[in-house]
Amino acid sequence: MEYKILERDAKLGSQTAARLLSERESRLETLHIRDAMGYSLAWCPATIPQKLLSEINQMYQNISVTDIDTDISVEKESFHSCRIEGADTTIDELNEIFRAKRTDRKGDRMILNTYRAVKFLNLTAKRNEDTLVRLWEIVTDGVCDNPGLSGSKFRTGTVTVGTHSAPDVELLDYCMKQFFTFYHGENIQSPYIKVAIVHFYFVYMHPFCDGNGRIARLLTSDFLIRSGLNNFSALTLSKTINETSQAYYMALENSENSLHDITPFIQYILKTVYDNLFEVLENQNIHIVNYVDWNEVFYNE
Fold first, then answer.
1. N or C, which end of the chain has less CB nearby within 10 Å?
2. Where are the domains positioned within the chain?
């Protein structure tokens, strides 16, 4: 649903737009997580096709991975995650970076930091504020873009990313409590849907002065692995996000709307997982499902 267009048209007096927004609101279900102002976030389960979830599960179960795949994918995941943030390192330079621990350029160091953050997550069992702060320290070591906003725990000032104004500093403790209550709670059955909500909320609250996107992507793969989907340690979701970065930011923007409906971002993450799994299986010459462009399905919902 293109909320920005519908909300604009409704304000201009379009009865059709107002009706569509009203109909959407009637189909929403409340999530057990609130934004900084205390409004409950919501989603529209009816717009998530069971076929999509079923085929994601089917493809995942047919993926074949090895320990070598995992080692290589951690390097590539770090690379693609940093490319999203502007690192100018090329894929052909990865071997030199990791073998020689090359840190001459900012992009190289960003990649090595992200790699080390993955290793840190693999070694620590806790998922709490201290874990996030340590992730931030590792990810931004020597490459922090906004050190003037760096606090002992969270950022100390207001940040704006695109059209999104992150919550005031005074509200971050409240948001972080909401985040971890939801993260550790038994609330959403599908780990793919839940991780989309986790990712969205972390980016929404934007707790640190820098590195939030990289940490959000680290948490995405980590959450899926901790949910028992261990093969995601050998996959590179950031590669697909990097290739569809414009759609990623549009989904984030579209999920900030008057109905607090974050379904657009949930749909984006599900399509990302689907496309990533499909590509991996194609490369392994395994054909399980007929490809569907879920964007077309979502657009015509």
1. C
2. 3-8+41-299
What does pLDDT average to over the chain? 94
C-alpha span between 115 and 75 (Å, rounded): 6
Could you give the CA distance from residue 268 to residue 278 in angstroms, rounded to a whole number? Answer: 15
Q: Report whether pLDDT(151) > 90.
A: no
Write out the two tokens for 258.
């008057």
* Band of pLDDT at residue 68, cut at 50, 70 and 90: low
Does residue 277 contact residue 59 with C-beta atoms inside 8 Å?
yes
State the fold for domain 3-8+41-299.
Fic-like fold (1.10.3290)
Pairing, β 164-165 against β 160-161? antiparallel
DSSP 196-230: HHHHHHHHHH--SSS-HHHHHHHHHHHHHHHTT-G
- Separation of CA 134 from chain center: 19
The whole model's pTM is what? 0.95
Measured CA distances, 208 to 113, 159, 215 (Å): 16, 9, 10
Closest CA to 218 of 238, 201, 234: 238
3-state class of 35 per DSSP? coil
Alpha helix (H) ranges present in 28-105? 50-61, 67-84, 94-100
Mean pLDDT along residues 82-100? 86
